[in-house]
Amino acid sequence: MAKELLARHAEALALFTERVHAVRADQWDDPTPCDEWSVADLVNHLTVEQLWVPPLVTQGRTVEDEADAFEGDVLGDDPVAAWDSAAAGARKAFGAPGALSRTVHLSSGRSRASAYCAQMTADAVIHAWDLSRALGAEERLPAALVDFAAGETAPYADGLEGTGLFAAPVEPPPGADAQTRLLALLGRRV
Which of 38-42, 98-102, 163-167 has the lowest mean pLDDT? Predict the structure, then answer.
């Protein structure tokens, strides 16, 4: 199971990386399907998420320990390089021997590192679609990642709107495919 989780995580990061590398200089301020987030805001969000992984997973730090370490713009003058570095660090941290069996201290409380990795994987998948939509890039997500993200998010999707980070679920059209159903569950209109 750990090998499969790490494989999905790597695939999700690779997909998002592909999209980040496709951002043209004139697109960083463009809107995304995420309310009030530009392309730069979306990439910054995912970059910050990856920056949290090494201290939480490999160093046993807590969100409180790091406090404001990753607040604001972490992209700097080279958003692509910032993303690449953060993604590599997260992949390495989750892939460290025994990392997925550890306990991490998130803002929501204690969690298994494997559950944290699964959440991060699903988030990267969904935001890869958001970034694709914003860039006018290919929006079709790999089936294995769609299935993984759906399985990960379905148990807690009803509570996501209350976090303020997700829109309310929308009704998918009749006969919708798995990707469309996943996106609708997470408030995306296709």
Answer: 163-167
